[in-house]
Amino acid sequence: MPDIDPKIIEDCQxxxxxxxxxxYLTYQHSIYNLAYRMCGExxxxxxxxxxxxxxxxxKIKKFKFKSHFSAWFYKLATNLCLDRxxxxxxxxxxxxxxxxxxxxxxxxxxxxxxxxxxDLERSVQSALNxxxxxxxxxxxxxxxxxxxxxxxxxxxxxxxGTVRSRLSRARERMxxxxxxxx
Length: 182
Description:
- The protein has helices spanning 6-13, 17-39, 42-59, 69-87, 96-106, 115-129, 133-144, 149-156, 160-180.
- By secondary structure, it is an all-alpha fold.
């Protein structure tokens, strides 16, 4: 997730809607991807993304420039994702191929179907969904978003050692899950 010019954040804190739009455009895809990976459902991810940006709008004045903005924002976003997961007892996960087909069809593009790739994507998403939410969040931030261990530590409010151990356990669990599908 990219960091943004501190001047834009300062302007957002003063209520400048143009700056908030820049902030939104910078982070919208990353936040949607985070929400989707956490909840596994297209419409839920859209709702969750909206909730995250609404929370950002109301809480941006609390950002004190003591850390990277992206780490602070991801902490806010991950907490909202985890809260949503806790509130829902059961998830109905939509497969990646269904989301891809819906998205491409809605945008007017033909949906190219590659069975091998679709099966792999489905298996990986299923393995990701099987992880406890705290482990899943670490995998998403490290392996999908490319965050450093330090940035994940800041975002989740945990030590780097905890990040590393959660990643290790999560990756091992995913390996077992994927191996059992063969």
